[in-house]
């Protein structure tokens, strides 16, 4: 049985109040090349595949890494809206998020010094429910401030790469 979001929020507040170290969590994701551009990904007890579309040398058996990045942003937005709506007592009937991103392949292929990452990302949020527009605008402000994946897109994150 799953707990309500308000129960999760309160339980987490109590655990963090008892020991601030309880707020620190880590996530690990393992990746293994299958063939070509196909990669098997394992997250806890979950697995999925990553691939590239044919024009980028793949077999199009799955979404590509940048599509998963957009999916991570969109799904984190939906989840964060749910948590903050519960926390603020803002009623929501539905949350729909569309994320679009523009990429210039010059950077990925090293054709010039263009940045290899997204040049622009657009998030469109469609909220439905009985609350006022003002309540939904306040909810959006809270989500924009607290969404972890949105933070990854907006701010540099210390990242190290190393050969094993």
Automatic annotation (TrEMBL):
InterPro entries: KH_dom-like_a/b, OsmC/Ohr_fam, OsmC/Ohr_hydroprdx_reductase, OsmC/Ohrsf. Gene3D superfamilies: 3.30.300.20. SUPFAM superfamilies: OsmC-like. It comes from the Bacteria. This is Putative OsmC-like protein. It comes from Amycolatopsis thermoflava. The lineage of its organism: Bacteria, Bacillati, Actinomycetota, Actinomycetes, Pseudonocardiales.
